[in-house]
C-alpha cells in the first residue's frame, strides 16, 4: 500500500459516496463542462479564475500556478481541464500518488511543452523528494537532475519551458506552506446550493437525453449532498428506474420513489447515516455517547462511523461531536420523526443532555 494513502475506509460502494467509483469515470467525461461559461456555480472562483486566465492570455504568457482545494466531486478535475481549454493549451494529467520518486517528476517536467498545463491531482500525497523538486520547478522553471549515486553524485541543472501547474487537493491544510506559497492563485471550492445542483441535474439530463421536469430535478438535487458528482450518479439511477418502471419521464414522484429504492432519503442520508442517527436517538436518547459504543451499536468499525458517516451528519447539523461524546441535535429528532425526551436541555454540546445515561453509555 502507498504510505501516503489516507483515504477514508469505504466498506462498500456507496451511492452517496463522493469519490468516483464504478462507471462514474466513463460517464463523467461526457458530463464535464467544457469552458468557464458552462461551469455551474462557484461564482467567486469562476470570476477570479476568469480574470487570471484572461490577463495571462492578453499578455501572451502562461497563467500563474493554480491550486484547487475542496471536497471530492466538486469539480476540481473539471476545472483543470477548463483551464487548459481556456488557455488553448495541452494538458498533462498525473497525481501525487503516481509520483513515487523525484525522477518520475523530473521525467514529466522535462517533457512538458511551453504553456502546457500540468494537472497534479491529490498533490498532498506526493513524496517529499518530489515535492522539493517541484518547488524549484514552479519558481524558477528549472530542475536539478541527479546523476550518479553517493558522494560522486552530481546535480545537472535543466531548464524547463514555462508551464502552469494546476494542483488539486481535498486537504489544503496538509500542504506544506512552501508549496502552498508557490501557487499564484488558490481557489477553494464550496459545496453547491440546491439551485445550483438543480442546474447540474437539468444540464446532465439534457446530455444524457433524459426527460425531466423541474420538480424531479429539485428532488434529485436535494438528495445530492451539495456534490455534483453525487447529483449525476443519482440522476443515472433515477433514469434507470424511470425507464424500467415508468414512461421514462423523471418527475418528483419518480425521483423520490427511485431513490427510496436505493435507500437515499429526502436529505441525502443513506442506510449507514440513518443507522448511526437512529442508534444515537433510539438507544442512547440523543447522547452524549462515545464513538466506540455508537459504532458497536450499528455493527460497524469505529473508523467507518467517524470517517464515512459522521462528516455529512455534522455538516448537515444533525450530529455534534462534543468532548463527552456524540450528541444529536433537535434537527436529528425532527428528521427521523421522533420526539426528544422531555428532559433534554439545549443541544448540541449541552452537558446536561442525556446526562441521566452518562453512567451507562458514556465513554
Ligand atoms: N460546476 C459544475 N457544473 C457542472 N458539472 C459539474 C460541476 N462540477 C462538477 N461537475 C460534474 O461532477 C463530476 C465530478 O467532477 P470532478 O471535476 O471530477 O470533481 P473532483 O475532481 O473535484 O472530484 C463531473 O462529471 C462533472 O461533470
Ligand atoms: Mg478529480
Automatic annotation (TrEMBL):
ATP binds at residues 31-32, 73, 76-78, 139-141, 182, 192, 229. Its EC number is 3.6.4.-. Its main location: cytoplasm. Residues 266-363 are annotated as: Head domain (RuvB-H). Residues 62-195 form the AAA+ ATPase domain. It holds the Pfam family RuvB_N. DNA binds at residues 302, 321, 326. Mg(2+) binds at residue 77. InterPro entries: AAA+_ATPase, AAA_lid_4, DNA_helicase_Holl-junc_RuvB, P-loop_NTPase, RuvB-like_N, RuvB_wg_C, WH-like_DNA-bd_sf, WH_DNA-bd_sf. One of its GO terms (biological process) is DNA repair. The keyword DNA damage applies. Keywords: ATP-binding, Cytoplasm, DNA damage, DNA recombination, DNA repair, DNA-binding, Helicase, Hydrolase, Nucleotide-binding. It is found in: Cytoplasm. Residues 12-192 are annotated as: Large ATPase domain (RuvB-L). It catalyses: ATP + H2O = ADP + phosphate + H(+). One of its GO terms (cellular component) is Holliday junction resolvase complex. Residues 193-263 are annotated as: Small ATPAse domain (RuvB-S). One of its GO terms (molecular function) is four-way junction DNA binding. The RuvA-RuvB-RuvC complex processes Holliday junction (HJ) DNA during genetic recombination and DNA repair, while the RuvA-RuvB complex plays an important role in the rescue of blocked DNA replication forks via replication fork reversal (RFR). RuvA specifically binds to HJ cruciform DNA, conferring on it an open structure. The RuvB hexamer acts as an ATP-dependent pump, pulling dsDNA into and through the RuvAB complex. RuvB forms 2 homohexamers on either side of HJ DNA bound by 1 or 2 RuvA tetramers; 4 subunits per hexamer contact DNA at a time. Homohexamer. Forms an RuvA(8)-RuvB(12)-Holliday junction (HJ) complex. HJ DNA is sandwiched between 2 RuvA tetramers; dsDNA enters through RuvA and exits via RuvB. An RuvB hexamer assembles on each DNA strand where it exits the tetramer. Each RuvB hexamer is contacted by two RuvA subunits (via domain III) on 2 adjacent RuvB subunits; this complex drives branch migration. In the full resolvosome a probable DNA-RuvA(4)-RuvB(12)-RuvC(2) complex forms which resolves the HJ. Belongs to the RuvB family. NCBIfam families: PRK00080.1 (NF000868), ruvB (TIGR00635). Has 3 domains, the large (RuvB-L) and small ATPase (RuvB-S) domains and the C-terminal head (RuvB-H) domain. The head domain binds DNA, while the ATPase domains jointly bind ATP, ADP or are empty depending on the state of the subunit in the translocation cycle. During a single DNA translocation step the structure of each domain remains the same, but their relative positions change. This is Holliday junction branch migration complex subunit RuvB. It comes from Streptomyces termitum.
